[in-house]
Amino acid sequence: MKPLVYDLTLEGWEAWAAERGLPRFRAAQIFDWLYVKRVTDFAAMTNLPKQLRAQLDEEFRFAALEEITHMKSQDGTMKFLFGLHDQHVIETVIMRHQYGNSVCVTTQVGCRIGCTFCASTLGGLKRNLTAGEIVAQVVKCQQMLDAEGERVSSIVVMGSGEPFENYEATMDFLRIVIDEKGLNIGQRHITVSTSGIVPNIYRFADEDTQINLAVSIHAPNDALRSKLMPVNRRYPFDDLIEACKYYIEKTGRRITFEYALIGGVNDQPEHAAELAEVLQGMLCHVNLIPVNHVPERKYVRTPREDIFGFKKVLEHNGINTTIRREQGHDIAAACGQLRAKHMQSITG
């Protein structure tokens, strides 16, 4: 299988051109056609020599994603199910905000992390996506928005999969989308979420970027987190907190802690008080997420009054806290839900 035309960073294109004795500016031209003009075939790259276009066509493929279906929420959220070349499917979401359009991308087909409240893990991990398959999700969304005269203004790497278990591809994806000669998405408008892959939190801290980091914590202690998130047995809670402190110290940037509230499991005032104690003194923000009901799971939503009660305890202890605004609630917009329904439909 030929590599995707979206797999290469600008530096990658420059190296490709140099290996073939081409002038360096050809790389910038190719990059411009891909991400500024957003063409969908090599023949459209009219300022490239015909021979070079033929060479590109011989070495790379354009097609990355085939739209299988999409759903549109009453709030404007759009969720897409895309087919890949090997019959696997992934999800991508466009979320509409007052400040612009945000795209939530997927980094793996399925997920092996095993969080007990998440639909993404149903069926386990099938494979990692290439950098180009992640980039293609943003390009596809931008092409759709082009028709409306709008643009992708922010990206969240929070779809199915664990980005830090597909670290190299995720980092190449980030380098491509932030490049000023390409899509030029501002680094501070991008957030990468991890379930707590400790070694790569340290690695990410040393990358010297302005990209935001979110950590899915979901519990205030080791024992409860291990029940909810098997990854905690590999990277214990205390080690995770130490890695987060290193990130804050190294970058000077605030971490967002994602906390899914599950009725009667991790949503009591004592859980909030314990979490506040753990996070005391850290440059952080807690984003409370009322858990989506997944038919295959038995968890229930936290009552509204308990959500606000949890928030109040955290704020009383000086922890900056918000409740995530729900989007796409009517279209199975939680990670993995649409893919799970599709897989059920084709397997009977």
- The stretches of 5 or more residues where confidence is low (pLDDT under 50) are none
- Domain unit count: 2
Query: What overall form do the CA principal axes indicate?
Result: elongated
Across the major sheet, the strand order is: 1-2-3-4-7-8-9-10-11-12
* Distance, first to last CA: 30 Å
Number of separate strands: 12
CATH superfamily of the largest domain: Aldolase class I
Q: Rg from C-alpha positions?
A: 21 Å
Under the CATH scheme, which architecture of the largest domain would be assigned? Alpha-Beta Barrel
What this model shows, in words?
The longest helix has 16 residues, at 131-146. The strands form 2 sheets. Strands 1-2-3-4-7-8-9-10-11-12 form a 10-stranded mixed β-sheet. A two-stranded antiparallel sheet has the order 5-6. The chain folds into 2 domains: 10-59, DNA polymerase, domain 1, CATH 1.10.150; 66-337, Aldolase class I (TIM Barrel, Alpha-Beta Barrel). The mean pLDDT is 92. It contains 12 helices and 12 strands. The protein is α/β, with parallel strands linked by helices and 348 residues long. It is elongated, with a radius of gyration of 21 Å. The two termini are 30 Å apart. Helix 4 (131-146) packs parallel to helix 5 (167-178) and helix 6 runs parallel beside helix 9.
